[in-house]
Amino acid sequence: MARSVGIIGAGQAGIVLGAELLRRGFAVTLYSDRTPEDYLADRGRPTACLFGEQVVHERELGLNFWEGTAPSIERIHLDLCAPDKLILFSVIASPRLPALAVDQRLKFSRGLRELAARGASVVVEKVSVERLDALAAEHDLAVVTVGHGGGPSLFARDPARSVLDRPRRNVFMVNIRDYDLAAGVGHKQLKFSFVPGVVEMFWVPFLDKDAGVCLSIVLEAVPGGAADRFTAVESADQGVDVLRGLVRDLLPWEARFLAPASATSPVTWLTGAITPTVRDPVARLPSGRHVLGLGDAVILNDPLAGQGANNATRMARFFAERLEERGDEAFGADWLASTFDQFWAYGRFVNLFSNAMLEPLAGFQRELLLAASRHPDIGTAFFDGFGDPTALFPWFAEPGAARAFLREHGVRGSDLLRYKLGVARKVIGHKIASGAAYSRA
Ligand SMILES: Cc1cc2nc3c(=O)[nH]c(=O)nc-3n(C[C@H](O)[C@H](O)[C@H](O)COP(=O)(O)OP(=O)(O)OC[C@H]3O[C@@H](n4cnc5c(N)ncnc54)[C@H](O)[C@@H]3O)c2cc1C
Questions:
Q1: Strand runs (DSSP E) across 83-198, as ranges?
Q2: pTM for this structure?
Q3: 49 CB under 6 A from ligand 1?
């Protein structure tokens, strides 16, 4: 008889896990607090751009319903900027594999229908802890994939693996349409605008449920800094206005591009702040039974490195493979915890990358990006890290490894010096020009 798994939560982790287990012959029951129609009528959800192998994986699972409709992200453009309205340099390169960002309302609505068509039982229910206990008894395994933000977690915080204890960014997201593509540079592909110490902004080509192809903007403001203006925003339109002001002040070359833009709908925006947290993957219920957690419910990162949905996908696949290998043996709590430890051998790099991006760029990291602005193969290596963060280690984390990496890519110390001089000249030119503008004013 097929082994039975109850999955609580039909989001990124739940849908992928369900599809994986169904193709491996498990009996799957999905417990979702929303119907497919509810998802479509819902507020906008996070951008959740998938990179690299995660796009391939959804395709292999037959969950790639929007490939061909959603914009395929084949190039990434990163502007590293100074806080006084200057692009210091740009990295423009193609990741090895395209990325894809599709409205989660479409994905989860269609995913629920699709899994039901493939034989999953779908139960529409907001599962409580008491009910979870019954579900743990009913199935060979109950897996909790309810994301974060639904109140106190069942899963205990792991203090050794949770290195941060407060949010490092205030996040704002809005989906926009009607921007002036002719006035923008790099917006047909994924664009990053980084002003270190102030803000990281992502302009993500996106398939929106209502507006179709548009841009989803994710803005990560350093608390208390010049970009931290969104916490009191109360509507999508207000958010877009605040964004226009921010762009005028910090990234004025984007002003014409953004001038005619409007939100794709009144609900496609959000604000928040996330404390990156790693939790124990197994929770004990009042009866003594246990459940497994996956996705944001146990590994929650700030969205700055765009890893949450990618990691939920990786975790779901990893656990589906291990559950199948387990054969007829019990999915005991110790076995689940040690299987999570095996995943963590990979997952820790995701967290190292996400947390590193929240810190000020170290000198050697800035040098790597500067070199990438002249050597697209280095840009490709950096952007590939979003699909597979292990590929960034050790060279994006250690100065010695960074130097060796640059040498391997044909960048000598004298080249770096030349590139830095180029940037210094640009800065001096900018200061003189803005000084002149100031004295004229
Ligand atoms: C602004 C922003 C931008 C982001 N951008 C990216 C990005 O570019 N790339 C990336 O990889 N990640 C990104 N993320 C993170 C990503 O969206 C999440 O990490 C990912 O969706 C987590 O998947 P999950 O399955 O764990 O949870 P979710 O996708 O949140 O799914 C959980 C589901 O469980 C359901 N649920 C909740 N409680 C219950 C209950 N009691 N019973 C039944 N069902 C329940 C909910 O309805 C929900 O659908 C971003 C996040 C934010 C905030």
A1: 86-93, 121-124, 141-144, 170-177, 190-195
A2: 0.96
A3: yes
**Substitution site in 12, 50, 143, 291 for ligand 1 pocket (most atoms within 8 Å of beta carbon):** 12
Is the pLDDT at 347 greater than 80, yes or no?
yes
pLDDT at 439 over 70: no
Q: What is the enclosing helix (H) or strand (E) of 208?
A: strand 199-208
User: Rounded CA gap, 139 and 122, in Å?
Assistant: 14
Which of 7, 33, 307 is the best mutation target for the ligand 1 pocket, counting ligand atoms within 8 Å of the beta carbon and taking the most? 33
Predicted pLDDT of residue 123: 98
Separation of alpha carbons 426 and 328, rounded Å: 66
Name the class of domain 170-272.
alpha beta
In whole angstroms, give the CA distance from residue 133 to residue 120.
Answer: 21
- 178 neighbors 184 (Cβ within 8 angstroms): no
CA distance 83 to 88: 10
Query: Shortest CA distance to 20 belongs to which of 38, 33, 9, 5?
Result: 5
Q: Say how many C-beta atoms besides its own lie within 10 A of residue 438's C-beta.
A: 8
pLDDT digits (tens, 9 = 90+) for 94-117: 999 999 999 999 999 999 999 999
Q: What is residue 150's predicted lDDT score, i.e. its pLDDT?
A: 75
**3.40.30.10, 3.30.70.890, 3.50.50.60, 1.10.1040.10: CATH of 4-66+102-164+276-356:** 3.50.50.60
Q: Does residue 312's CB lie within 6 angstroms of at least one atom of ligand 1?
A: yes
Ligand 1 near 17 CB (within 6 A): no
pLDDT digits (tens, 9 = 90+) for 319-342: 999 999 999 999 999 999 999 999
